[in-house]
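User: I need a structural model of DNA-binding transcriptional repressor AcrR from Oceanobacillus picturae for a docking pre-check later this week. Nothing fancy, just the predicted structure tokens so I can convert them on my end. Input:
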Amino acid sequence: MPTLTFYNLAEEKKQKLVAAAEQEFSRVPVYEASIANIVRQAGIPRGSFYQYFEGKEDVFFFLLNTQAQKRRRTFFSLLEKHGGDIFQTMTEMYAILLQEIPAQENLQFLRHAFLNMTHKVEQSLAEMFSYGDSNEMIDGLRPYIKMSALNTRSEDELVHVMQIIIAVTMRNIMEKFSRNLSDEQAIENYKIELSLLQKGLCK
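Assistant: Understood. Predicted structure tokens for DNA-binding transcriptional repressor AcrR:
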């Protein structure tokens, strides 16, 4: 994560460095990315970069976590909109993600993240839908989820429900990008899988 020195930078300098990193990670996956390209685009000395981040993976996961936090706000807003219905919420959230990632050039690094998934990347991306450990997940979701509609015996089972839905969502996004599916086909596939889950998880 960024150092205090990074957070103390003037906002314009911070945004310039973030934009340069987003551009580089949108160009290539993180393992092919070049710190030299980031500092050149940001207009800073290479040594300065290491005052802000430990390395390219550090800045990459900072960007990933930042985007996950933004989309988590969208997720909870959609939960409210749909009266706590997790399946309607995830269907709309999925469609939004498919529209946003290809449409914004600086978000292409999210596409690379989905196509080059590791356990750490998956954990960061999953924070779009919740955060923290199991207890924090339950505490965060309890005010929003319509528990009475789910075929669960306890709040602990809600964690497993979310893990299943998130795993299905991640796999569908990966498949969308790896197979270059149209948005319509990707959404249809996702709806079919969510419908199958819904039959087993809802009353």
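Before docking, keep this in mind: The chain has a mean pLDDT of 88.
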